[in-house]
Structure to design on (149 residues):
């Protein structure tokens, strides 16, 4: 069983409320989303594992059980070409839950006309393999979002 924790402090809004049909339709996978606080912050690793994909706006960490967790910082943020994002780790690095992975500013993303709402998705999972999925309420970075069996 993998516990997936929030990479961000903010308000849990659930995948259905992500302003992108690929995420809201769970086409990438099941999970939830966080509307982050509007201040410079660090996105944290949601699980212990290896960083297998690293972009300024998104990263994937695969844990020892082979579960890949995608953290996507905002919607359409790839269009910012990395501006306002600072990578703190590299692809291939081993990370521990709660370790800072990317520095970014959700307020700057919003000012650039993009949504800072950030999906946290269980890749190659089925909805019934997730438990205790948070869909609402305030969350601190490191707070539990869902479990994955």
């Amino acid at each position: 069983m993998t516990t997936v924790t929030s990479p961000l402090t903010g308000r849990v809004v659930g995948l259905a409320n992500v302003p992108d049909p690929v995420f809201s339709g769970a086409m990438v996978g099941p999970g939830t989303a966080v509307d982050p606080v509007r201040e410079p912050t660090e996105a944290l690793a949601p699980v212990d594992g290896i960083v297998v994909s690293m972009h300024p706006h998104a990263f994937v960490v695969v844990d020892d059980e082979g579960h890949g967790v995608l953290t996507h910082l905002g919607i359409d943020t790839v269009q910012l070409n990395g501006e306002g994002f600072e990578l703190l780790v590299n692809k291939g690095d081993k990370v521990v839950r709660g370790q800072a992975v990317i520095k970014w500013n959700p307020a700057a993303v919003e000012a650039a006309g993009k949504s800072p709402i950030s999906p946290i998705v269980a890749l190659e999972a089925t909805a019934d393999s997730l438990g205790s999925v948070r869909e609402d309420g305030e969350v601190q970075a490191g707070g539990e979002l869902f479990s994955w069996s």
